[in-house]
Amino acid sequence: MLEALGKGLLIGFMLGIPVGAVGALTIQRSLKEGFAAGVITGLGSSLADCVYAFVGMFGLSLITDFLTAWQREIRFGGCLVILVLGWRMGRKSEALEMTATSASPSRRSGFLSAFLIGITNPAAILTFLFAFSYFGLGAVTSGAEAGLVVIGIGCRTLTWWCVLAALASGLRKQMNEEKYWLVNQVLAALLLILGVVIGISALY
Predict the structure, then answer these.
(1) 30 pLDDT higher than 80
(2) 3-state secondary structure at position 164
(3) Distance (Å, whole) CA 120 – CA 72
(4) pLDDT per residue as tens digits for the range 106-134
């Protein structure tokens, strides 16, 4: 049981390095609203990872076949989500919001945005299947053990988001409206570039 959890943690460690679109969102939310907002954003991505890990771990071939067959269309959907987020982020020039009350709707938005980005990456299921095979998890027959692997992956990827959110929120006190606007523009540009790259890659 503990071995299964440990393998899940290790897979999450390998696959959960905070990069890409969700990383940009996590940094932006952490700078704007603080550590909790960044973690909640990352949590959306971790949940998407858990969904795909669950599909792969429990051998839900029907879902896997569907995701593989419609991979291009789903990735185009993810491309559109990232482009819209980048456009919205780039056009906002509001100052830092320091209160949790005003930030609550934005936190929900951050969670859902990160989840959508993660769930519209069907290639993740293939990555998980490869990782499970590499670590010999295909032989896991116990539902409890399979569940622990999924939990381990979720916990480990969320740890990465916590670290990133902590680093970004630590710089928050040094931010003024002008610096925040500049960082916002850089992150928005990154999202737009990633969205275009994903859209082009979906063609091949």
Answers:
(1) yes
(2) helix
(3) 10
(4) 778 889 999 998 888 766 666 666 666 65
Q: Is the dihedral of CA 193, 85, 168, 40 positive or negative?
A: negative
Name the phi and psi angles at 71, rounded to 5: -60, -45
In this predicted structure, what is the pLDDT of residue 112? 92
Measured CA to CA, the distance from residue 12 to residue 3 in angstroms comes to 14
Average pLDDT over residues 41-58: 84
Using the predicted structure, report yes or no on whether residue 78 has a pLDDT greater than 50: yes
3-state percent helix, strand, coil for the chain, nearest multiple of 5? 85, 0, 15
Within the chain, how many helices (H) and strands (E) appear? 9, 0
Distance CA(141)–CA(173), nearest Å, equals: 50
**Residue 102: alpha-carbon gap to chain centroid:** 24
Specify the pTM.
0.77
The sign one gets for the Cα dihedral 142, 48, 24, 180 is negative
- Give the residue from 169, 159, 32 showing the smallest Cα distance to 104: 32
- Rounded to an integer, what distance in angstroms lies between the CA atom of residue 144 and that of residue 51? 16
